[in-house]
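Sample pair:
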Amino acid sequence: MTIDTLTPGVIAQTSAATVSLLPLLARFSLRVGETERAALAKAIGLDLPLKTGARAKAGGVEVLCLGPDEWVLITDDAPRLRDACAGIQRQAPHSLVEISDRELSFLIEGPKAAELLTLGCPRNIDRIADGEGRRTVFDGATVILWRDGANRFRFDVSRSFAPHIVALLETGCAELGAEYSD
């Protein structure tokens, strides 16, 4: 089975964790300099978080700060976002690139979700606060990890690495499920 044939839904489920493929959403990479940031924030309809790992959400747009001048945006209204940013390109030069088809997003949740992520992620998962996110690696693949709650994560990975990552998560979920009983 190839990852492209998977439809959104549960991939692996045990008492320890559940791994699900999420429906596709419009996703953009935004690069903008400090002097143009306020104009972009106004056009998008929310303040761009400035601390790496910080997130903001408003008006159907969620944004994660990946670095000093880099953000990833997820939206349920791609045309509005594209038009708003295009409308201020001359006044506030920036780079907005749609990357919707580049990555797949997974939901990892359950009492051992954080432990499941440690199978391939060298980062201390407990140090990522609820409502934050990080660009990191998982078994050598660059990923974006969103922490939505104590036991709830979203995990964005390049399509080319998705079959490998899914296999690891399925195996890890089964192993943790065999060890864990609530």
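DSSP finds four helices and eleven strands in the chain.
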